[in-house]
Design goal:
The chain is of the alpha/beta class and about 325 residues long. It has one domain: Alpha-Beta Barrel (TIM Barrel). Helix content is about 35%, strand content about 10%. The strands form three sheets. Strands 6-7-8-9-10 form a five-stranded parallel beta sheet. The chain has a three-stranded parallel beta sheet with strand order 3-4-5. Strand 6, helix 4 and strand 7 form a beta-alpha-beta unit. Helix 3 crosses helix 4.
């Protein structure tokens, strides 16, 4: 299928397509509105506060700190709110790129019947959103994902979703972003994408700085295969793990992988907001980048990770 809604060479935001040079400083893996507790067996109220004024203040603080764009990785079934994202973007001036697809197996909406549908059927649903907008909203996704796994392996249903995401990517040119906690699952995801014909340079493997992924060998294999390694829990770990992740990032920079590294915070729970004692969306800009500079990382490399790499991966590209 083809549609004028797919603008090759541009970046699709919730307010419409923009030129890549308009993107600027970007957090490539965040959540403004999400609900992660509405599944059987989960009793904690994980997710964000569904309060537009709180979200507005949090995003405005990011804008005032120098942020220009956010990739909102919330997908269907966990609280994706296209209309709310448009309003926040209009009020703050921050570009917001919205995700699509399905998250991980425990969070699949029962009514979506993931276990009963073919890969192609699931892919058609993703493609329809990309080409025609979400439902009747007229609001379009700009990235596929975050799609992911619940454990350190890919379940049968998750494999189906990954293959559907890959086929939607091939049909539309939107990049793929994953939820990948626990090695070696990111490599398994890459195997699936590669089997579907995906150019791995169009894939982001997420959560590379989580506790179960802090392995130089694991992260380096992702990079060697051409994908992006995303350090997206910056500021949300115990100090010892923060330092370990920081040192791994420096090793990758020293080895020449700056073009494949991304930085974000994965704000996704109430305690992550500034108004509730968290870092909000400003930690990368206000704390982490100064730490990189103090460690001797050049402005050129910082710009690659925060501006150039997000711009490249989010630009719609068919092949």
């Amino acid at each position: 299928m083809n549609s004028t809604s797919i603008r090759e060479g541009l970046i699709q935001t919730v307010r419409g397509p923009i030129r890549p040079d308009q993107l600027g400083m970007t957090l490539p893996h965040e959540h403004l509105y999400d609900q992660l507790w509405e599944i059987p067996g989960r009793n904690d109220y994980a997710g964000q506060i569904d309060d537009d004024e709180v979200v507005y203040e949090e995003v405005l603080a990011y804008r005032n700190a120098g942020g220009q764009s956010i990739v909102e990785c919330t997908v269907r079934g966990i609280g994706r709110s296209p209309e709310k994202l448009v309003r926040i973007s209009e009020r703050t001036g921050v570009h917001i790129v919205m995700g699509c697809g399905w998250y991980r197996e425990p969070y699949y909406p029962p009514g979506d019947l993931i276990d009963r549908r073919s890969v192609d059927d699931l892919a058609r649903e993703i493609i329809a959103e990309i080409e025609h907008g979400v439902a009747s909203s007229g609001i379009y996704p700009g990235i596929i994902g975050e799609v992911g796994t619940d454990k350190s392996w890919v379940s049968a249903q998750e494999e189906r979703v990954h293959r559907a995401a890959a086929r939607a990517h091939l049909a539309t040119g939107l990049a793929l972003t994953t939820h990948s906690i626990g090695k070696p699952v990111g490599l398994t995801e890459l195997d699936i994408f590669e089997d579907e014909g995906v150019d791995l340079r169009r894939v982001i493997i997420g959560h590379c700085d989580h506790a179960f992924c802090l392995s130089l060998e694991y992260q380096r294999e992702i990079l060697k295969r051409g994908a992006y390694a995303q350090f997206d829990s910056v500021g949300n770990k115990p100090p010892e793990l923060e330092e370990r992740a920081f040192q791994l990032l420096l090793k990758h920079l020293e080895a020449g992988y700056a073009d494949q590294l991304l930085l974000s915070q994965d704000v996704c729970k109430v305690q992550h907001f500034r108004c509730l004692g968290g870092n909000g969306f400003t930690y990368v800009l206000e704390t982490f980048l100064p730490k990189l500079r103090k460690a001797g990382v050049s402005e050129d490399l910082i710009q690659k990770m925060t501006i150039e790499n997000p711009k490249r991966i989010l630009t719609i590209m068919r092949y």
